[in-house]
Design brief:
Elements lengths: L19 H21 L5 H8 L13 H31 L9 E2 L5 E2 H29 L15 H6 L14 H37 L1 E2 L4 E3 L4 H34 L9
Parallel strand pairs: 1-2
Antiparallel strand pairs: 1-4, 3-4
């Protein structure tokens, strides 16, 4: 199985196997002649052509960060995700808290029914899940259309866990392309990785969020209390924006790097499964 099991991509029709022994000499001579002719005419080798033209329009992996990659990762996706995530979280918080009757349903830090600490924890998990799947689609679409170069200068990891996380050394696929089991396997593999990213970033986002809320809250015997505007909304705006800024660039780099390995290794049917 290649780098990722993605049922969004269409499979390539299978090619009937050839008689390898009977055609070995013929194919070898043909390939040698083609390579010599290509070299004489200043053309790319078959392997280089595979890297350039795999699927729709993948570009060659880069040996260092380009200005466009930096803009794509940190400005377009990083700053863009910060603005979008912050705005969405602000709107959700306004809808959730601005209409509350805080006399009967007070907004507190830890106690239910309106717990901002619980809201902050759920936001980290849900936003990581949503962002991962959005970037899965957007980045791979841009890669296939040649809108951005893959990253080619990061070495493949050697550790077992990281190779699993980066879709390396995957077992051979035994179920049908775009079958129900295929979709379940695809979604499970993506959700697991999104949750692992949420776990990694959780203490860096949730902890400071609690500190901010304690500073803005009003202690009243059993917990910190808040007005229905504007502390909850501003808190969600900041948390959503910071989380988007921190998590989106690594997710984008994940797919750019994995694509670079696939193209450099000439992984068969890249991006189709």
């Amino acid at each position: 199985m290649p780098w990722a099991t993605n049922p969004f991509f269409k499979p390539t029709p299978a090619v009937p196997p050839a008689d390898v022994e009977a055609n070995a000499d013929v194919e070898g001579n043909a390939e040698a002649a083609a390579a010599a002719a290509a070299e004489a005419n200043g053309l790319a080798s078959p392997q280089q052509e595979t890297i350039r033209n795999a699927d729709d329009g993948f570009k060659e992996p880069t040996e260092k960060f380009t200005a466009h990659q930096i803009f794509y990762i940190f400005i377009l996706d990083g700053i863009g995700a910060m603005i979008l995530s912050g705005g969405i979280n602000f709107a959700i918080a306004y809808a959730m808290y601005a209409t509350q009757d805080i006399t009967t349903r007070p907004i507190r830090l830890f106690l239910f029914p309106n717990t901002l600490a619980g809201d902050a924890a759920v936001t980290v998990i849900i936003q990581c899940l949503i962002t991962w799947h959005i970037e899965l689609f957007l980045v791979n679409r841009d890669l296939r259309k040649g809108g951005v170069h893959p990253i080619g200068f990061i070495a493949e990891p050697k550790g077992r866990f990281m190779r699993w996380f980066m879709f390396l050394d995957r077992p051979e696929q035994t179920h049908g392309i775009r079958s129900f089991i295929h979709w379940l396997s695809f979604l499970r593999s993506q959700i697991l990785r999104a949750l692992l990213i949420a776990v990694v970033f959780f203490p860096f986002v949730w902890g400071p969020s609690i500190g901010f809320l304690i500073l803005e809250g009003r202690w009243d015997g059993d917990d910190w209390y808040y007005d229905k505007v504007w502390a909850p909304q501003v808190f969600k705006l900041i948390q959503g924006g910071v989380l988007g800024l921190l998590t989106t660039p690594p997710m984008v780099m994940f797919w750019l790097t994995r694509c670079g390995w696939a193209l450099k290794n000439n992984e068969e049917h890249y991006g189709e499964r």
